[in-house]
Design goal:
0% of the residues lie in helices and 53% in strands.
């Protein structure tokens, strides 16, 4: 059974940084596509950043220049470096991993809370 687990969330002051980690276990496949999403209270889940196995990245406009997604296929892991955090970045951050051999939509973690205080 494939499992996705996020970690690294927490409380940080305005302008601070956090590094989120995502570990995928229980699979023999190299992750083809991995992405970070976030969901704030009362809002829809939104894409933060994604990366293909070929290294192509995509960032939401709010993340450009502040957030950086990386991956380590040897560790079945991905990371999200978040800099210059703002109050609007407070949300639960989710990792999504996908591969053509997996069910549509891939697998999701349970999320990690990020809280940015003024």
């Amino acid at each position: 059974q494939v499992q996705v687990a996020e970690s690294g969330g927490g409380s940080v002051q305005f302008g601070g940084s956090l590094r989120l980690s995502c570990v995928v276990s229980g699979t023999i496949w190299t992750i083809r596509f991995i992405a970070w999403y976030r969901q704030a209270p009362g809002k829809q889940r939104e894409l933060v950043a994604s990366m293909t196995s070929g290294g192509t990245t995509e960032y939401a406009e709010f993340a450009q220049g502040r957030f950086f997604i990386t991956r380590d296929d040897a560790k079945d892991s991905a990371y999200l470096q978040m800099n210059n955090l703002k109050s609007d970045d407070s949300a639960v951050y989710y990792c999504n991993a996908d591969h053509p051999a997996w069910p549509t939509g891939g697998y999701w973690g349970r999320g990690t809370q990020v809280t940015v205080s003024p």
